[in-house]
Amino acid sequence: xxxxxxxxxxxxxxxxxxxxxxxxxxxxxxxxxxxxxxxxxxxxxxxxxxxxxxxxxxxxxxxxxxxxxxxxxxxxxxxxxxxxxxxxxxxxxxxxxxxxxxxxxxxxxxxxxxxxxxxxxxxxxxxxxxxxxxxxxxxxxxxxxxxxxxxxxxxxxxxxxxxxxxxxxxxxxxxxxxxxxxxxxxxxxxxxxxxxxxxxxx
Length: 202
Description:
By secondary structure, the chain is an all-alpha fold. The chain has helices at residues 23-35, 41-55, 60-72, 81-92, 115-120, 131-148, 153-161, 165-196. Helix 2 packs across helix 8 (165-196) and helix 6 (131-148) crosses helix 7 (153-161). The chain starts with 22 loop residues before the first helix and ends in a 6-residue tail after the last helix.
């Protein structure tokens, strides 16, 4: 199972210089899909709202990087960017979305995979400190849970945490952060509508 507890970070963050630019690959991915006739408008809208929610918890650069991963790692899956983002917010939102967060039960990374679950998807525990690998493992874990849940996504997210009262609380947290991101989507839609009508926004 994945970890449900938000615990203090036990290691120092990797140096920012180690991160690589993510916008160009994202742009290429979007262009490639658009050329195939696949509409990306809703996914792109979600990424903007995710970035805003992430920025409330971490640096703007890191928020942008993680939001882009929520976009790219859910392409070709049954999931939308929100699905991956809300797990990150529920798991490590209280720990600044740290890539080196470790829960009291030993769950690792932004998406808090237990070492044995990471290994079941072909990743080492050390890989979970790499945001991209952790996101990939989280998508695979959520897909596994979706199969167990007979396609019920809410139940799959609950199973991502585990079972029992803690998992019920986790699902409530998931729904709370989704409301936060949906509210951000509404604000963005309102801003766009005002700009198109010629009304200046603050």
